[in-house]
Amino acid sequence: MRNILVIDDEYPIREWLSRTIRSHFSDCHVESAINGLDALRKLDDIDYHLVISDIRMQQLDGIGLLEQMQNHYPRVGIIVLSSYDDYEYVRSAFKFHATDYLLKAEINEERLIHAINHFFTSYYQNSNSDTLSQFIAEAVIQNNIEDKAFRESTLSENMPEHDYFCFLTKAESYDSSEIKQYVPVDDSLLLRFYVPVTNGISMGCAEFHCQPSRLLQMQSQFAFCSELQKCNRLALVVSSPVTAGLEKLLYLLKQLYIHRNINFYGKSVYILGYHPQNMDADVEDLYTVLLQATTSSEMINILHEVDKFCTVLEQYTYPNIDFLKSAMVNVCEHVSRFICAKEHGGTHIATLTSNIQGSNHIGQLKDIVKQYISEEQSSMPLIEARGSERIQKVLKYLEQNYMKPLSLSSVAEHVQVNPEYLSRLFKRNMNVNFNAYLCDLRLHKALELIQGSNKRIQDIAYAVGFQSFAYFSKCFKVQYGVSPLEWRSSKKDTP
């Protein structure tokens, strides 16, 4: 026998509720109370499963009754009735673990019966909710459970039999996740499960009682998600497409969990769509272009590529927010190292990384990155001046060491800058690339030795730093139009 207590200070409403419940639930014992105090006396005498209570009454109203019940009868379910469609009333009711909130202006026999059925379905599910939470967490987050095992588990009674959709909710804060969420009553839907899985995130599955058209299903689904968002303190409600077949259930739950952070793009209610198959490849290509820009472009171009990259990810609602933030950290590091030749210390990078990782919206992330790049740009005149000083050091070093095995990397290490940065800096200041300049310097030194000594030309080539005589001869002829031997001969013939 299931015991239900109806509480309302208006006799006609109280009697209609009691009579309607008795006519539809022959296995229920139904009693009534005229206010909260009267209800508490009855709760002391009988173990009730469910209380249906008005929220505005004299002598201990519904909110006061809920608070007392939370303290003394926490296992009793509560459905709240109200004449007021007020968010604060809803929040107050669910702060004390009400299971439903029905407006008197909208309630009818069908909605009342559905709300009671909804409660008792949830009541029996709650007996294994902890097990279900752990099971879903292991399957979705830890990937420890295969699809077949998921469908054939002891929790199979929670599986949908008809068309359904899965949904994920994310609390605004972990504190608010401790308050039981209000799940809106929908005559067309049966809530198969709705359980917390981790850190303010809950996941559920809603099944359609009948099989309306797909358009009506989508409308009902969006209305359900919007009402869920409206009546709870949620940062995000994300739902899967409407589908059928248990073989898709675990996949849908996993997809929902992957998208648990897309409120980063300003989403609050979102129905998962079908992303392009090449989305990951497109993102990877864009990221490659962005990194290339940070090693070879002007600051204005880098800012443009940052905007382009973030805009595309926002359009895709790209779910991997961790990747996006890590990409922006890399972009900022590349700007410092390759454009500005600055090797920041660990504290600076740690602060930048913390600011980027702590951003909670795509706009905030872009502001952090753009501000950082702009600050780096403002330091460019000083950097350019230092760059000229570095080039003078490089030229002096080459003049003194051209005969040794040299490379761009070894020279960059000597002047303590990044090789890629030195390459650009050298080209910008000397109008020739590093290797061409070094080759010209060695050829000029070789020219002096060929003309001023009788050394073998092959020995001269090695003496000025060339590692291959054949390569020396080739470069010499390209530069002067004749071979080294021909050049020496022509100088001897000159009076």
In words, what does this structure look like?
The chain is of the alpha/beta class and 495 residues long. It has 4 domains: 2-122, Rossmann fold (3-Layer(aba) Sandwich), CATH 3.40.50.2300; 128-271; 279-378, no CATH class; 432-495, Arc Repressor Mutant, subunit A. Helices cover 57% and strands 13% of the residues. A 5-stranded parallel beta sheet has the order 2-1-3-4-5, sandwiched between helices. Strand 3, helix 3 and strand 4 (77-82) form a beta-alpha-beta unit. Helix 18 packs across helix 19 (457-463). The protein is rod-shaped.
Largest sheet: 5 strands, parallel
Please state roughly what percent of the residues sit in beta strands, choosing from under 5%, 5-15%, 15-25%, 25-35%, 35-45% or over 45%.
5-15%
Helix- and strand-based class?
A: alpha/beta
Rg: 37 Å
Strand segment tally: 10
Describe the strand arrangement of the main beta sheet, using strand numbers: 2-1-3-4-5
The total of helices stands at 21
- End-to-end CA span: 128 Å
Helical amount: 55-70%
Low-confidence stretches: 381-386
The number of domains is 4
